[in-house]
Every structure is written in C-alpha cells, then in structure tokens.
Amino acid sequence: MILIETEEDIRRSQLFTDSINSIWHGELNGRRTPALLYYKTVEPGRFEYIHIGWSKETERIERSALAKLEKLTADDGLRNGGSQSYGYWLGPAWGEMRQFHEDMSKAHDIHRKSLDTAVKILRDAIARIEATIDPDFPPIGELYFDLARIYFEHSLFEEHDAAYEKGLSYKWNNLETRPEFFGHGVAEKLKTLAHIYLDRDQITPALGVYARLKQARIIVPAAVAEVMHEDWNKLAEFYERHGNIDEAIACYRS
Asked: For residue 155, what is the enclosing H or E element?
C-alpha cells in the first residue's frame, strides 16, 4: 500500500487513483485501464506520452509507479489538471484536452443547422493539432471519426469514407506502438467500417477492411477475436456463396 504522510501525499495519491480509474471512451470496451497513461507537457502544443506500469498485486510495483508519477509531475505541479479520457492532463496539456472536447461538442450541436460550420470547426481543430502535436496523439483520430459521423448523417458517403480512413490511420499508428491499449478500439473501428461497406453492397472495400483485421489479429489476437467472433462466420458464408472455399475454411477456423 502507499504511505500517506502529508497533504501533498494525499493529493498525489488521489491524482494517481483518479488516473488509474479513468475510462477511455470505449478504447478498452468500457473496462478499467490497466495502467496510468500520462501526458507531460514538453512545450506548448507538444506532449510526451508515458506509460507507467500499474498493478494492484504488489506493493513494490505500486510504490514504483507512484514514484514515477511524483517525478513526472515535479515540473508541472498539480495545478490546472484533470482526468479526462486518455489519461491525466496537467498544465497546458489540460487546456489542450478541454479545447479538444469543446470543439467536438460545438460541431455536434450545430451540424444539423449548418453542416459547413460544423465541418469547419472540426477541420480547424484537426489542422491545429496536426501542425503542433505529436502525430501519435490518440484523440486526433476521434476528431476524424466525429467528422465522418457528421458526413454520414448528411449522406455524404465519399467524404465519410475519407475521414473514417484517416482516423483509422492514426489508430493504426497507436496500435503498432501501444497494442495493449489500442487493440480493441482498432478492431471495433475496422469492424464498423466493414459493416458500413457491406450494408452498401460494396464488397471489395469490405474485404479490404477484413484483410486489415487479419493483419491486426497478428498484433492483438485476443482483441480481434473478442470483437470478430461472429463476423468471421459471416465472411466465411460470403466466400462460400462465391465459391472461394479455401478462404471460407480459413474464416471458419478464425
């Protein structure tokens, strides 16, 4: 257990606990995060992404994780911080994260009245983040997915597909560098896109998405298996109908 001796210890302990218990907007399918994901401000607009290992099993690991947190927060202090989606944010990083959510909310609120205004809000936010922030910054993909949702609601399917694919490209970068945290989210996004294509009877792009799911399965087999346990059979049936027995067998075995 963590020794609590001073008011500062209490604040740091609460920071640590809140961060551990924060839920990432479905990235782990609503489950609690297994580690603290912390963004330290390197300079305005740029953040260092740090994974601090966490376990409730041993005192040694718990103490080590808290020590790392204390070291990381020494420069920024515990001011102007908050636990929101992808970890705990301090100083300028916290302001950036709040702006990110404000931009998404504004776009959602206005898109039925003015599509152009909503698109501009999200495009401006994306341009600002792409110009000033590490390209692996996880929330940037969510801005593209929000843009895709708005396009979809207005039946702008080509624009939807382009925005969705761009969001997936960011998610895939996260998958390759941090598979333990982003595997489930990437699998869900790929499955959703495959269903969109199938609903439109666009078989070729749907099969392309399933091919990417097979690639993801090499990196995160458990996450893809959880998300795709029924879809492989659906894809197998499709292959059977079109006489591709080898592919059908491979899907059934999945």
From this structure: none
Q: Which residues of 221-250 are buried (b: 16+ CB within 10 A; e: fewer)?
A: eebbeebbeebbeebbebbeeeeeeebbee
Domain ranges, residue 191: 179-254
pTM listed for this prediction: 0.65
Question: Angle of helix 245-253 relative to helix 231-241, nearest 10 degrees?
Answer: 170
Same structural domain, 162 and 209: no
| Residue 228 placed within a domain | yes
* Residue 140: both structure tokens together: 């940037």
In a domain, 2, yes or no: no
User: 191 with 213: CB under 8 angstroms?
Assistant: yes
% pLDDT > 70, the chain: 57
Position 54 in a domain: yes
pLDDT of 132 > 90? The answer is no
